[in-house]
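testing teh design pipeline on a random one, pls ignore if ur not involved
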């Protein structure tokens, strides 16, 4: 478990809103086609952050409850999504959402599940899900396979970060998902996703990460200079493309207390 998981994003909120990726329409299309997601479904977005994982469901017309413990991120979501009448912002945690029993058709955790305490979250998810309800665990994972820049950026993060090495491998272990959902009780699918940045927005994307060096860190200037060199090496017409795979793990949890779950990161 990492310390201060609730507060570690407080200093990144503005950059998180501006520079973190959303979730692609192809994912919502998949949910509609394969999991019977309709506009009538009630969605609980746990660890909803600044609202990026709530927004696709609100556009579909769903009633969405965004549960977020970090006050700064929750307020950002309220500003971003306040014009949706079906959005309700809640101060709560995955382990204690404050929601009533059996209220959710879909329970979503977008780039958040690795911060949860898995046994307590498993118990809470069982409580608030309706019978037959789905759990959707989603991450936007940087795609390193076919991009020299993405590989170079990963090496940059290993050098210029606080705890990136600890954070980077926290959501790709089948045993962890077996522990949470039950053995072979979940499935995985992925969708292509991307962003395009100029240099200033690339710096903002870096600073949106919880492990990024802060501006008052003694190595921040060196990090920015290294990022400038990366940009100049790989940019085309003043732009760089960030490639992702949006990875969705989905299933219906069985009874019991749940297992070890995912390590926080």
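output:
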């Amino acid at each position: 478990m990492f310390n201060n998981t609730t507060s570690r994003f407080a200093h990144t909120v503005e950059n998180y809103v501006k520079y973190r990726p959303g979730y692609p329409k192809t994912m919502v299309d998949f949910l509609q086609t394969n999991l019977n997601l309709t506009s009538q479904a009630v969605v609980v977005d746990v660890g909803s952050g600044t609202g990026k994982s709530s927004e696709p469901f609100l556009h579909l017309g769903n009633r969405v409850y965004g549960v977020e413990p970090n006050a700064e991120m929750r307020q950002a979501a309220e500003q971003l999504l306040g014009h949706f009448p079906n959005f309700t912002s809640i101060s709560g945690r995955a382990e204690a959402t404050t929601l009533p029993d059996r209220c959710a058709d879909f329970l979503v955790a977008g780039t958040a599940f690795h911060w949860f305490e898995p046994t307590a979250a498993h118990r809470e998810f069982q409580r608030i899900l309706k019978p037959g309800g789905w759990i959707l665990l989603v991450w936007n994972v940087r795609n390193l396979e076919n991009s020299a820049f993405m590989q170079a950026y990963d090496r940059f993060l290993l050098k210029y970060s606080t705890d990136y090495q600890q954070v980077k491998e926290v959501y790709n272990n089948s045993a962890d998902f077996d522990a949470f959902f039950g053995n072979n009780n979940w499935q995985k699918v992925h969708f292509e996703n991307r962003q395009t940045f100029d240099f200033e927005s690339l710096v903002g994307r870096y600073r949106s990460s919880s492990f990024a060096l802060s501006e008052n860190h003694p190595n921040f200037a060196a990090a920015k200079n290294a990022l400038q060199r990366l940009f100049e090496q790989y940019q085309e017409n003043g732009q760089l493309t960030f490639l992702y795979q949006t990875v969705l793990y989905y299933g219906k949890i069985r009874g019991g207390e749940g297992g070890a779950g995912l390590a926080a990161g």
